[in-house]
Amino acid sequence: MADTIEYDLVVIGGGPAGYAGAIRAGQLGKTVACVEMDRPGGTCLNWGCIPSKALLKSAELYQKMLHAADFGLSAESVGFNFEQVVSRSRKVAEQMAGGIEFLFRKNKVDHFRGQGQVTGPGMVEVKDGPDKGKLIKAKNILLATGCKMRPFPGVELDGKRVMTSREALANTQQPESILIVGAGAIGVEFAYFYNALGTQVTLVEVLDQVLPVEDYEVAKLLGRSFKKQGIQVHIGTKVENLKVSEEGVTADLVKGDKVTPVEADAVLSAIGVEPNLEGAISDKIRLEVDRGYLTVNDRYATNVDGIYAAGDIIGPPWLAHVATYEALQAVNGMFGAGTPKRVTLFPGCTYCIPQVASIGKTEQAIKESGVAYKVGKFPFAASGKAVASNSSEGFVKVISSEEDGEILGVHIIGAEATELIAEYALAMRMEATPREIHETIHAHPTLSEALMEAAADVENEAIHI
Q: Model pTM?
């Protein structure tokens, strides 16, 4: 039998939850191992968040070059090499994965390549991969195996005609046309990317708005913007009779009694994610689950002593930054470095153009709750910096309690929305009011002034509208 190595903590999964939890335990002076099939960084870094943003940046820059005349500039014969665009995104992912490997060494985290399985109390075995057969004894185990993309039912993934985001990130052949099923963050980001580079895009969402979790005014503007960009957007629509052939894919778009046939070179499934627990837990271990996701208490502990879980595997919102926060809380708690907190407030970001970012509740959710509220809005069209940057599409929307001024939700659509949302994340954490945002001097001219003006508009005191 192979030698058994003992650690204070073994983490199964090397994504934003797994690697962060492992590094934090290392910072606390604990002996740590992380078992991961892929390079450190998990799906987010290797096949999700990071490489997709590299693709989106290439698409955004290409579009800006096409519209150089708007800035009084001349850019002739502007083109792109799709294979090189994808290759750059892979290099970005590799560079960042290398950074995580460096941080593992810096914090004395041992990395085992393969699929980790909890085989008994305090015991992990590497079941597959380069380190197959390694036995690891652990005082504590953190499960951070995340989620995987949900394929379109009844259709086999082939990486060319039928893809999820993972296959799309590796596909160096640009389709002339693509059907994207699902208009959540992943769906709209890929819709923007492909359309910006000239692919004919049909985007379909079964619910009544793109980005269903976002505020309805934001979703309405994004849908209108996408149509203006040339994307065929279908909301409240089902995809039925999807068929794949050597020539491409066909399907019926069904909205009420109306059936519209559609053809495309490829289809991308962006219909959500599913828990990725397969092979991670022996049949001897009975962990409580809810719809496939691990159930944990306020300390991120499962029902089995010594086994914790964090990140996407414990359920929504399935965001990398939330996963990191949860893992840090779990590790701090298990080693007495703080009282763990569960996630209640977090920003959500979508990196299409225009960008979308939000935190807190949507106006429709607040209205349904019966709470009296006020709304302040400021359009980027009234922002000097936005107009000077040729980025005047969108707005900032602040919703606050009529009773005590508590900020209930903030919704931004427009240039750098994903960067701007951080100010309101901090404000809500510090229990600031719109008045305090309004009375904080923001540098001029900056996009952040729109945050201040929207706060001022809650009390009808905005200057520039």
A: 0.96
